[in-house]
Amino acid sequence: MNTIYMMVGIPGSGKTSIAHKLQITLDAIIVSSDFVRLTHPKWKESLIFPEVYRLIGEHLRNHQHVIFDATNIDVETRKRHLAAIREEANSFRLVAYFIKTDPSVCIKRIILRNQQANELLFPPEIVMVYHQKLVYPTIQEGFESVITIDNND
Q1: Sheet of 145-150: strands edge to edge?
Q2: Record: fold of 3-150
């Protein structure tokens, strides 16, 4: 059975960088909400996640593991995402990667990222809002395991 590896962490935590490192180890395809936004810059936000779910479902139906690279910070968001993914493909394993990063480190990373060409701009002052809403993923949510990565480097 194929697996969804769900990245969980606040903006600037390093989810995408870690996802790229895990991609080879896990033999998985990354599906990223930010990549969909960059690929379709004129799309309304309401179109982004349906495309993410469609892509995840397509890869799962093609017997591929998927790294779901999005913020996924709270239980309700994760439940909503999983319900939508189950409409696309209902059989998969689920593993969480919780990226633990000090919010001050995330703010510095966001400021640097905002200065790079071809990056989505993110207001650094919003990082603390995300941090306050962050909920650690659990087995009770349906994850087979939760792997914590400390990423303050």
Answers
A1: 28-32, 65-69, 3-8, 93-100, 145-150
A2: Rossmann fold (3.40.50)
